[in-house]
Amino acid sequence: MGGWAIAVHGGAGVDPNLPLQRQEEAKQLLTRCLNLGISALRSNASAIDVVELVVRELETDPLFNSGRGSALTEKGTVEMEASIMDGPKRRCGAVSGLTTVKNPISLARLVMDKSPHSYLAFDGAEQFARQQGVELVDNDYFITPENVGMLKLAKEANAILFDYRIPTVGYETCGAGVESPLLMNGLPISVYAPETVGCVVVDGEGRCAAATSTGGLMNKMTGRIGDSPLIGSGTYACNICGVSCTGEGEAIIRGTLAREVAAVMEYKGLCLQEAVDFVIKHRLDEGKAGLIAVSNTGEVACGFNSNGMFRGCATEDGFMEVGIWDQ
């Protein structure tokens, strides 16, 4: 065993003109979450407990697109989704369409631990949350003034806004002003930076786990489900690795991106970073995305083909890094 390792992300696809203050705030949050996970791992917490703990922290802070601070649907509401997976026996839990659950990742954990199912959505997931006694809040809790402004911009542009963190003043200098928008399933969108959150961990026993949580796309159609709650696409963990993805959900779904990392390790004999690089290069077609991963031997890796990815990682031997831009 190579010891424990942890990685976190706050989304792939970062506008190159993102204000420096916002960049610093993101780095501080990632550092705080890493330290939270490191402390738990040093106390011999299991990988599955650590990924839930860290993602709960990310959901509580409105900086990224999960929990409080989630992107808004076309109706101005929040619909959240999350998934979690425990590598040793490939147990998993996922939820979609949440509107009142304060911490979606913990409800996903309860689906895994306390239900006979792997995935619950919308009214059924909300009913299960009430039965389990999880903390519920009004939908307004998740909505921030910043996101209300970004939804307005998206509606004026008649587009899905990927980078909903573009400043409302001077946004014409950011990605929203691109002349040749990206395409999603052949349809134009404006800019790219979903800012999903995730965490992957291998603990001191070599057990891997992964967790991912998001509010989805700004101005998305109500009922839209992305890659984050889909096991094998946005989240995957098995006995050799744990993976959490972020980016263009439809492309990640088509490429079953998270599972592909494990597959090329198993079938091609690649090491973790080689597997990550292979998948980013060969499994996204024209999509933009990123991912973080750990292996059961204590390796940690990340990869992305977008402008950047909010990310951080640490290992038991003292290595720690937080970054946004090129690897």
TrEMBL record:
<keyword id="KW-0378">Hydrolase</keyword>
<keyword id="KW-0645">Protease</keyword>
<protein>
    <recommendedName>
        <fullName>beta-aspartyl-peptidase</fullName>
        <ecNumber>3.4.19.5</ecNumber>
    </recommendedName>
</protein>
<comment type="subunit">
    <text>Heterotetramer of two alpha and two beta chains arranged as a dimer of alpha/beta heterodimers.</text>
</comment>
<keyword id="KW-0068">Autocatalytic cleavage</keyword>
<dbReference type="GO" id="GO:0006508">
    <property type="term" value="P:proteolysis"/>
</dbReference>
<dbReference type="InterPro" id="IPR000246">
    <property type="entry name" value="Peptidase_T2"/>
</dbReference>
<dbReference type="InterPro" id="IPR029055">
    <property type="entry name" value="Ntn_hydrolases_N"/>
</dbReference>
<dbReference type="GO" id="GO:0008798">
    <property type="term" value="F:beta-aspartyl-peptidase activity"/>
</dbReference>
<dbReference type="GO" id="GO:0004067">
    <property type="term" value="F:asparaginase activity"/>
</dbReference>
<dbReference type="Pfam" id="PF01112">
    <property type="entry name" value="Asparaginase_2"/>
</dbReference>
